[in-house]
Amino acid sequence: MSTPTILDKIIAHKRQEVAERQSLVPAKLLERSLHFASSPLSLRKYLQREDLSGIIAEFKRKSPSKGVINAHAPVERTTLGYMQAGAAALSVLTDTEFFGGKNEDLTIARRFNFCPILRKDFVIDEYQVLEAKSIGADAVLLIAAVLSGEEVLRLGRLAKSLGLEVLLEIHSARELDATLHPDAVSLVGVNNRNLHDFSVSLDTSGELARHIPTEYVKVTESGLTTAADIEALRAVGYQGFLMGETFMRHGRPEKACAALVQQLMG
Fold first, then answer.
1. Distance between the two ends of the chain, CA-based, in angstroms?
2. Active site residue 50
3. Is 191 part of the annotated catalytic residue set?
4. What percent of the chain stands above pLDDT 70?
5. Residue range 6-265, CATH number
């Protein structure tokens, strides 16, 4: 029997976590959240705006591959600083066990920012989609490596019915073919990090760009560090650039973001 990968461990833990949360906070209670009555902002539209950088700036405390990245950056100052720096949108990690995040991080970011916010987590259940809406997210991540085409369709349709957009994360053309559905997906993200061994290569985005249909906004994730990286991938059709560790490893992540945006926008 093969040894479980990091991804296997994350998903096994996530199944337990979701079951526990459902028992503590039923879906009906989630639907009473003030955010359920709000109209989400469009991540697609913000990434396509020419007056913005296309950067999705991420708030992330730690990761399985790097350990603790930044345990002390405050959510309010960092996310507000990202937006003031010219980021097009925010991504907030809400997984606690492996990434050190929590739902409250996203809710705080929502309170202080008028921009699209992506809930970054390992979504495997309808309950998490309702939860995303209830905490103030505008978009959810669905990861093709852990979901079947039918699951992406079901979860994506639920998200769209709530006004949320779906960023489908892929690592290969095979995953794209198996899970891409126009009724479920608004944006396609190519993760340059292999989720099984956590190695990174920007060539992954370069190679997969031509496989993604033009009607989807293309997002590249992981491993981006410089303005040159962004410009090279923009040249092959990417409009969204999800960056977390590059900023978060600095004492003031928002200042690192501002310096990069300045390089990009001149």
1. 54
2. no
3. yes
4. 98
5. 3.20.20.70
